[in-house]
Amino acid sequence: MVVKKDLKKQAIAESIAAYLVANGFADSGIRTLAKAAGTSDRMLMYYFATKDEVIQAALMLITQSLTAHLDSLITAQTISGDQLLEVLTQAGRSEEFRPVIQLWFEIVGRAVRAEQPYRDCAQLIAANWQQWMTSKLPEAQHHQVEELFAQLEGRLMLHLIRF
Questions:
Q1: Cα-based angle 41, 46, 47 (whole degrees, multiple of 5)
Q2: 8-state DSSP, 49
Q3: Nearest-CA neighbor of 99 among 28, 11, 18, 38?
Q4: Could you tell me which of 67, 15, 69 has the C-alpha nearest to residue 43?
Q5: What's the domain range around 39?
Q6: For 15-38, what is each residue's pLDDT tens digit?
């Protein structure tokens, strides 16, 4: 049974997810995140034990939302690696996805500096994405998922820094 506290926690995480997509992490202190969620910093800490927990919850929501959207773009049970790479590249280059892709690279930048919770989140998100990509590929191409993921990230990074 879903309780009122869980619903409020979900709503807060959704508001913070929207804030992070729009603004990134530059101004992501507890007070700023609480304000973005329409609550106080004390109430934010009532629902989430730490700032890291808040960030992780928001990032997981962003990932779930993006996955659901991409599922709607790829309706076939499986597609070739080349087709998957093309669909994901086009989606990632769209203005709709640009803020999410920018946020992803911000997470990766912090993760490679071993900053938490970004390192753990980046590892989890990358593993989830590779698992999702694998599910879209024919079994004979499952071994290509890391290469396809790397190609996708490279394409998206170059697109972001060129435009």
A1: 100
A2: S
A3: 18
A4: 15
A5: 1-57
A6: 999 999 999 998 889 999 999 999
> Are 83 and 161 within one domain?
yes
Are both 101 and 36 inside the same structural domain? Answer: no
Mean predicted confidence (pLDDT) in 64-72: 91
Place of tokens 């790829």: 74
In angstroms, the CA 19 to CA 25 distance is: 9
User: What is the token pair recorded at 151?
Assistant: 């190609």
Q: Would you state the structure tokens that stand for residue 104, as one six-digit string?
A: 């992803």
For residues 67, 70, 72, 76, the Cα torsion angle rounded to the nearest 10 degrees is -110
The tokens of 13 are what?
């995480």
Structure tokens at 62: 């962003």
pTM score of the predicted model: 0.89
Q: Do the Cβ atoms of 133 and 141 come closer than 8 Å?
A: no
Side chain identity, residue 3: V
Q: Token pair of 56, please? A: 């992780």
DSSP conformational letter for 80: -
CATH number for the domain spanning 28: value is 1.10.10.60
* Type and span of the H or E element at 148: helix 145-162
